[in-house]
Amino acid sequence: MGYYITKQGEENLLKYQYSGADTSYYYRFVLTPLNKWAINFFPMWMAPNVITIAGMLFSVSANALVGYYCPTFTEAPPSWVYVYVALSLWCYQTLDNLDGRQARRTGASSPLGLLFDHGVDALQCTMGTMTMACVLQVGTGWKLMYLWSVAFVPFVFATWEEYWTGTLILGRINGPSDGILISMILCFCGAVNPGFFAQPFSSSPFWTAILQWTPIPLEWEIHWFAIMFTAVALVPTVGANLHAVHTKNTYRPTWNLAQCLVKTFPFALHFFLAWTWFLESPTNVFASYPRVFLFGIGFLFGNLVCKLMLAHLTHMGYVVLRRSQLPLLIAVAQSVWLPRVLPDIFPIVPEHIALMATTGFAVFLWAHFVTSVIAQITKLLDINCFSLTEKQLAAIEARKQN
């Protein structure tokens, strides 16, 4: 028994069988044929998690690049940066699909691979938000915080659905497939006309002709289109998750939807704390350190959602009161709430120091979770994380000879 997985959880993990499907037409008719062709370029000895990490590195490089050229989320990067971001999104998406195919091809499928992939996707939500925020030039105000939120909400509810139903069926139009395609198209629009998304609707005859009969102000920036689109797309996406849990709950069939929603409390609390700090910060710390802020709440959120996935894999049950939320709670209390009632005592440390400490704790908690769970699962299943075992390689050679 380890720190995060109980003895009973280990026994349940040994019985786990993955179930899921992507019903997107783009995935079915474009990505699937592409993946079947591309997988042949990867050697059989390569571990699936190495492919997952490679995909993440493309995302990291794109985020670092736009961070250099767009430090305040308002600058227009050179055209080639937009192109690189689009290509990095394509590489991330492709490799994210290929890791599972490589696992099945080499006989290395395991719950660890699913959890590892989920953890990388959780980090991608934060990095992808910042990258696309630079492409759209939304600045360091509420629009940036909104984009981060709208990236995580469907991710949480998809994991929550999988926790209760035991499977995840992605819709005909979904974020991992079609959402990334749309993001790539936006990047190419920016490459053709850098700064395009920061221009008002009135600067474009196309948008002027469409919007002049609507209540949408023409002086709004063109990136408002992306903001409105994500808001509209979020409703049916989350609605489908709610409907699936309501009709296909196999984990606790006697529980109603309201009882199942209790498991989302940690995420609701996290959103509340993050938005409270953003809105009521005495020094507007978000505007001064937007990337530190987003990475801090992003790592904490990733910790919460990966523990929900781990609970799904092990059937241990998901605890709604989590100690990992204490760093953010303490930071908000000492920076925002307590100074109002005890101004002579609080804040004990400057707000930006509290932010740095919170982000540092978030990274530490994430690292502890990742290393501990990897160590426990690899020992339990007698596998490696970043390489195939001798037994797996021998099985591959045996199949070749047959």
Number of helices: 16
Q: Which stretches are low in confidence, meaning pLDDT under 50 for 5 or more residues running?
A: none
* Total beta strands: 2
Q: Kindly report how far apart the N and C termini lie.
A: 39 Å
Using only C-alpha atoms, the radius of gyration works out to 22 Å
Helix content: 55-70%
Morphology: globular
By secondary-structure content and strand pairing, the structural class works out as mainly alpha
Mean pLDDT across residues:
95
Order of helices and strands: HEHHHHHEHHHHHHHHHH
Estimate what percentage of residues fall within beta strands: under 5%
Largest sheet, order of strands side by side? 1-2
Biggest β-sheet: count, sense, barrel? 2 strands, parallel
How would you describe this protein?
The structure is a single chain. The protein is mainly alpha-helical and 402 residues long. The protein is built from 16 helices and 2 strands. Strands 1-2 form a two-stranded parallel ribbon. The relative contact order is 0.13. The model has no long low-confidence stretch (mean pLDDT 95).
Give the SSE layout.
Blueprint: H1 7-14, E1 20-22, H2 25-38, H3 48-69, H4 79-106, H5 111-136, H6 142-165, E2 168-170, H7 175-192, H8 205-211, H9 224-248, H10 257-261, H11 265-280, H12 285-288, H13 290-314, H14 326-341, H15 351-381, H16 390-401
Parallel strand pairs: 1-2
Tags for this model:
402 residues, two-stranded parallel sheet, mainly alpha
